C-alpha cells in the first residue's frame, strides 16, 4: 500500500491528500493504450495455501508442486487438503485481509478434487498438467511498492514497531522513516526536476512520448524553458523532455549522481533499515531477481520479456522482441517521480525498467493493470500475478481475474515477504488461471 504518508505525494509544504486533484484522463495521442473490456470476471485465486510461516513453509522442490503421477504424490495432495482445513479453522492474525477466505476455499476444492473418480478418462497427471505453469510460459509479476517490497510508510508513522508489541524500538523506526523521507525529497529536487514537475503527475514516463520531438537534450536549458501548468501541447512537450531525461538518469544509477555525503547517508540508511526490518529489503530484491530469472534467456541477466518491455519504449525496436522470460512491473499509488527515486534508493532499479513503473494515483490501479495487459498483448500471451498488501491491488486483480498474493508486515503473519518463494508464485498462478478458466 502506498497511500497517505510523506512521499506518497511528497510536497515541500505539506503531505498531500490522496483525494486531491481530478482524475487524469488520457489524451487520444497518449502512448499508453486503453484496454476495452466489456466483461470483467472476478478473480477466484489468491495466495498459495502453503504460505504458513517461514518455519513451516514447504521447501523448494517439494512434491507439493510437482506433477502427481504416483500414489505418494496423490497422498501429498490429500495432505494439502488436510493442512488447508486446519489453516482455515485457525484464527489468523491477518483474518481481515480482503477476499482471503474465498480464495483459499477455492484452492481447497481444487486440492480435494484432483483425483475425482467421477471425472472419466482423466488421470491425476492429466488434471495437474492442464493447470501447471510450464517453464516456457512467461509470467508478468505486478508489484506494489510500500509495505510490499519495502517497509517505508509504517516506519514513519510508528505502525511497524507497534506490530511487534515492544520488541522493536518505535523511536528508531520513526527516525529511519523520516530520514528516508528527507533523502528521497532531496534526491527528487536535486536531480529529477521535482520542484518543476511537482504539480504534474503522469501515470508513466512514456505517457507523453508522442509530444517528444526527439531533440538533443545535452545542451537543453531545463531551468529557463518556462514549463507551465496549463496542459497544452507546448508544456506537454517540455514535460516529455524531462521524462526522457529522467529515464536516462534512472538508467545511469545513483552512484553517478549523488555526492559523497549523500552516498554515505544512503548506504548507512539502507543497512540500518534492512537490519531493523529483519532483512525485508534484501528479501524483496532477492524475490525480484528470482522472478525475473526464472525463465531467463538473456545473456545480460534480464529475461526475454523484460528486455522486450524495455525495448518497447523505442518504436523502432518494438518488433525485435525476445520470446521467453518473466518480467517485473511496479504499480504504486505514490506519485511518479518520487516512486522512481524510491526504486533507486531502495536498490530496486535493476529489476524495474523505468518504463515499467506506473503511478496509479490519478487513474487507479485497475486502469494501470489494463494498460499493462494491452501493452503486453503485442508481445506474446503471458500470465499475470499481482503481489501487494492493499485492497486496491487486490480488487483490481479480482476484476481482471489475475491471481493475487497477499503480503503482510505483521511478525506472526503467514504472508510476510521473506516467506515468499517462486514455488508459491508458480502455484498461485497455476491455481488462479485454472479457476478463472472454469468461471
TrEMBL record:
Q: What is this protein called?
A: protein-tyrosine-phosphatase
| Species this chain originates from | Sphagnum troendelagicum
Q: What class of enzyme is it?
A: hydrolase
Q: Which family does it belong to?
A: Belongs to the HAD-like hydrolase superfamily. EYA family.
Q: Give the span(s) annotated as Disordered.
A: 1-70
Reaction equation(s) it catalyzes: O-phospho-L-tyrosyl-[protein] + H2O = L-tyrosyl-[protein] + phosphate
Keywords from the named record: Hydrolase, Magnesium, Metal-binding, Protein phosphatase
Q: Which cofactor does it need?
A: Mg(2+)
InterPro entries, sorted: EYA, EYA_dom, EYA_dom_sf, HAD-like_sf
Amino acid at each position: 500500500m502506498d497511500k497517505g504518508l510523506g512521499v506518497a505525494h511528497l510536497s515541500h509544504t505539506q503531505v498531500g491528500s490522496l483525494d486531491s486533484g481530478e482524475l487524469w484522463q488520457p489524451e487520444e495521442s497518449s502512448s499508453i493504450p486503453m484496454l476495452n473490456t466489456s466483461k470483467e470476471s472476478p478473480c477466484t485465486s489468491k495466495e498459495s495455501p502453503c504460505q504458513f510461516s517461514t518455519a513451516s513453509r514447504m521447501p523448494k522442490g517439494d512434491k507439493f508442486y510437482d506433477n502427481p503421477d504416483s500414489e505418494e504424490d496423490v497422498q501429498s495432495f490429500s495432505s494439502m487438503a488436510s493442512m488447508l482445513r486446519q489453516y482455515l479453522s485457525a484464527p489468523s492474525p491477518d483474518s481481515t485481509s480482503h477476499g482471503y477466505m474465498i480464495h483459499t476455499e477455492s484452492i481447497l476444492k481444487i486440492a480435494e478434487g484432483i483425483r475425482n473418480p467421477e471425472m472419466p478418462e482423466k488421470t491425476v497427471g492429466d488434471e495437474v498438467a492442464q493447470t501447471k505453469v510450464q517453464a516456457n510460459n512467461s509470467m508478468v509479476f505486478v508489484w506494489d511498492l510500500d509495505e510490499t517490497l519495502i517497509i517505508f510508510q509504517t516506519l514513519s508513522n510508528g505502525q511497524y514497531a507497534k506490530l511487534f508489541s515492544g520488541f522493536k524500538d518505535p523511536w528508531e523506526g520513526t527516525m529511519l522513516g523520516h530520514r528516508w523521507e528527507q533523502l528521497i525529497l532531496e534526491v527528487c529536487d536535486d536531480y529529477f526536476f521535482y520542484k518543476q514537475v511537482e504539480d504534474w503527475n503522469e501515470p508513466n514516463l512514456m505517457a507523453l512520448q508522442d509530444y517528444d520531438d526527439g531533440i538533443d537534450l545535452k545542451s537543453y536549458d531545463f531551468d529557463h524553458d518556462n514549463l507551465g501548468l496549463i496542459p497544452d501541447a507546448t508544456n506537454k512537450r517540455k514535460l516529455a523532455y524531462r521524462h526522457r531525461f529522467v529515464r536516462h538518469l534512472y538508467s545511469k544509477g545513483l552512484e553517478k549522481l549523488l555526492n559523497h555525503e549523500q552516498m554515505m547517508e544512503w548506504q548507512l540508511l539502507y543497512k540500518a533499515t534492512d537490519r531493523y526490518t529483519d532483512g525485508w529489503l534484501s528479501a524483496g530484491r532477492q524475490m525480484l531477481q528470482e522472478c525475473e530469472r526464472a525463465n531467463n534467456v538473456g545473456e545480460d541477466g534480464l529475461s526475454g520479456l523484460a528486455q522486450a518491455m524495455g525495448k518497447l519504449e523505442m518504436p523502432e525496436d518494438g518488433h525485435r522482441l525476445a520470446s521467453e522470460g518473466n518480467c517485473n512491473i511496479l504499480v504504486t499509488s505514490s506519485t511518479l517521480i518520487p516512486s522512481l527515486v524510491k526504486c533507486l534508493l531502495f536498490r530496486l532499479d535493476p529489476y524495474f525498467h523505468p518504463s515499467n513503473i506506473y503511478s496509479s494515483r490519478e487513474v487507479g490501479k485497475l486502469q494501470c493493470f489494463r494498460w499493462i495487459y494491452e501493452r503486453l498483448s503485442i508481445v506474446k500471451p503471458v500470465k499475470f500475478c499481482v503481489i501487494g498488501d492493499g485492497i486496491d491491488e487486490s480488487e483490481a486483480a479480482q476484476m481482471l481475474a489475475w491471481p493475487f498474493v497477499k503480503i503482510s508486515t505483521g511478525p506472526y503473519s503467514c504472508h510476510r515477504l521473506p516467506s515468499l518463494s517462486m514455488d508459491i508464485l508458480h502455484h498461485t498462478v497455476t491455481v488462479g488461471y485454472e479457476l478463472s478458466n472454469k468461471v
